[in-house]
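TICKET: design request
STATUS: open
ATTACHED STRUCTURE:
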């Protein structure tokens, strides 16, 4: 193998820190062809679908990719904006905000780049930009609050695969998760409270997380427990009684069982229990995307209304809210300790609140 060299290894100044934000990805356009290319990359990853390749790839290329892209493209067109994909636009805006905040408070040269697991800018492209900027220390932040093998694990895989090609390896750190970090929970609480102040308080809070196959949970993936802890901590911060909140899982794919209860099933059942006024929040999504804007705020809103529900409020993801950017900057600064001096004034990070399920 011919290894990639750093553009300048005779660097005498302060060592530059590279921050790599990683999200899942998005089609380049709300068209069937672009969706097909995105799904081919996404669903080919063994982290996402753990079936044997000899069994799965014929299904993927013979059944799913010929049929699913056109249907998915229609959904993407419902949420596409003048700025393009909401996930990419919001992730890039968050990167810009973080760059400003970190530059003002970290006493070291730094670069912040965004990489996507299954679309551009790709993880290798983002790492290349950090290398070309002279970053000798790199902190990787997967934008998935709750650790999951299918998401955070995929980030580890792609970062390590790219770094295998480098001659001069940077000092490397990963942030595996932040599902119970007080700053994250505080940001979620503030977003719900401000939404209630603007739109009125719902009588029940449904916290919907992206699902994973039940099989993954039984084989040791901790994601289910991480989601439950996030939900419990948020409910405590909102002073909710047990009957006033619940947890569900959305976005299942294929015939196998996924984490339960399913969001669509819960939304169908709530009106029958006399709960017709709800607030839905999705604490597993750093920024809004197809799964929140179309699946929750459009498709599942209609499911709830068809079942007899009356008021359905979706609280947007944290996106580029000041509390979100400030928390992520503080999280990054905390994990860069020993690399640089920081001046981010937050309360000292204590032990995680609550206990694991």
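STATUS: resolved
RESOLUTION: sequence designed for all positions
ATTACHED SEQUENCE:
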């Amino acid at each position: 193998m011919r290894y990639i060299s750093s553009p300048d290894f005779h660097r005498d100044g302060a060592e530059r820190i590279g921050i790599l934000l990683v999200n899942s990805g998005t089609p380049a356009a709300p068209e069937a062809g672009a969706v097909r290319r995105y799904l081919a990359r996404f669903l080919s990853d063994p982290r996402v679908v753990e079936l044997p390749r000899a069994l799965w790839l014929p299904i993927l290329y013979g059944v799913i990719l010929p049929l699913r892209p056109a249907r998915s493209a229609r959904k993407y067109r419902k949420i596409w904006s003048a700025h393009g994909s909401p996930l990419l636009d919001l992730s890039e805006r968050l990167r810009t905000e973080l760059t400003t905040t970190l530059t003002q408070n970290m006493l070291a040269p730094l670069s912040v780049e965004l990489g996507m697991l299954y679309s551009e800018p790709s993880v290798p492209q983002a790492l290349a930009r950090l290398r070309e900027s002279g970053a000798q220390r790199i902190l990787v932040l997967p934008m998935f609050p709750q650790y999951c093998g299918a998401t955070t694990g995929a980030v580890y895989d792609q970062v390590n695969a790219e770094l295998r090609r480098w001659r001069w390896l940077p000092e490397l750190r990963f942030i595996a998760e932040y599902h119970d970090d007080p700053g994250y929970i505080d940001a979620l609480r503030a977003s719900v409270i401000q939404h209630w102040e603007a739109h009125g308080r719902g009588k029940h809070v449904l916290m919907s997380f992206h699902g994973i196959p039940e099989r993954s949970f039984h084989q040791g993936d901790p994601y289910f427990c991480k989601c439950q802890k996030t939900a419990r901590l948020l409910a405590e911060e909102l002073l909710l009684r047990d009957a006033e909140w619940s947890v569900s899982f959305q976005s299942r794919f294929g015939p196998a069982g996924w984490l339960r209860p399913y969001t669509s099933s819960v939304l169908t059942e709530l009106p029958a229990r006399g709960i017709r006024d709800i607030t839905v929040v999705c604490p597993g999504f750093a920024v809004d995307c197809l799964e929140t804007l179309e699946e929750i705020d459009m498709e599942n809103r209609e499911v709830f209304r068809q079942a007899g529900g009356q008021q359905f409020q979706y609280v947007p993801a944290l996106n580029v809210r000041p509390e979100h950017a400030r928390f992520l900057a503080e999280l990054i600064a905390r994990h860069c300790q020993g690399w640089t001096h920081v001046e981010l004034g937050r309360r000292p990070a204590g032990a995680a609140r609550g206990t694991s399920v």
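CLOSING REMARK: The beta strands are 16-23, 110-116, 135-142, 171-174, 204-210, 245-250, 277-281, 311-315. DSSP finds eleven helices and eight strands in the chain.
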